[in-house]
Amino acid sequence: MSAKHLIGQALELRHRLPRLWRRVQSGDLPAWRARRVAETTIHAGLCREAASYVDAQLAPFARRTSVSAVDRLVDAAIARFDPARATEAARQAADGRRVTIDEEHVSFAGTMRVTAELDLADALDFGAAVTQGAQTLKSLGSEESLDARRASAVGELARSQLALPLGEEVAQQPSRNQGSAARQVVLHVHMRGGDPVARLERGNLATLDQIERWCGQSQTQVVVRPVIDLNEPIVCDGYQPSARLREQVILRDRTCVFPWCTRPARSCDLDHIVPWQDGCETSTANLAALCRRHHWLKTHSAWRYERTGLAKYTWTSPRGNTYLRDPSGTEPG
Q1: Is 94 exposed, middle or buried (0-12, 13-18, 19+ CB in 10 A)?
Q2: Is the pLDDT of residue 216 over 90?
Q3: N or C: where does the chain have the smaller number of CB atoms within 10 Å of the terminal CB?
């Protein structure tokens, strides 16, 4: 069986992923990385055009591409070259949504496990509501840990929703939720030809049909914001960046730019690459997204970096080792 898998991966690379095959043959790409990609495309059952698309997109960055990134690229290929299959997969995923309350297993401390598989937009709404609830409990004096406050917030949400306003009769009755904020959908869409796939800010992929469904719900507030040119040089007076500059850096960097860190840029600090107090400006060229941990590391240690491209950075460690960081990943310099 192992030999069968090995031969199948070799045939997949040789005939359907020729760019990756050439990199393996030249010694530029470890065989195990190429085999991992081949196994994914075999399991997905891609057509020849879709496999060629994955090969072309992945070959230049295969040395530093994660498993999840390969899976997302395969999903995008299916959506582009086999939309009927992608639609059916989305329907099956929707049918697989569930919320499970394990009432048969209650801990001695009186806790119970709850698991859920939700629509992406619903899951993000739920996460935002739980986070806000945890912050409210802290402001009211709760000294519990963040996880404990988030768990308590779920209970508060459940008690405030004794009757969900989904039906016409319920909607006509007074409700504690009337006047609550509608769902806001903020999408950063890069249009390219007739591409049926959009990349969400967190790196997830969604079809245009899914986006249309999320935006079409009655309680969704769709906000259209001006397009931000990632190449536009923006300079601000003073230390704090403007809202437009902050959004530009977040969209450009996507994650913390420290080597191998994947924390989303929206939850990161904006770091002055050359310290502001040394006379440098607050600008597109001098700001980068760093999570709080790596921001402190850069500030209080000998780690240093410079911006070498649109979202490309070269880091130097205290021992003099260099690392090249861009949206495709990190590799030694």
Answers
A1: exposed
A2: no
A3: N
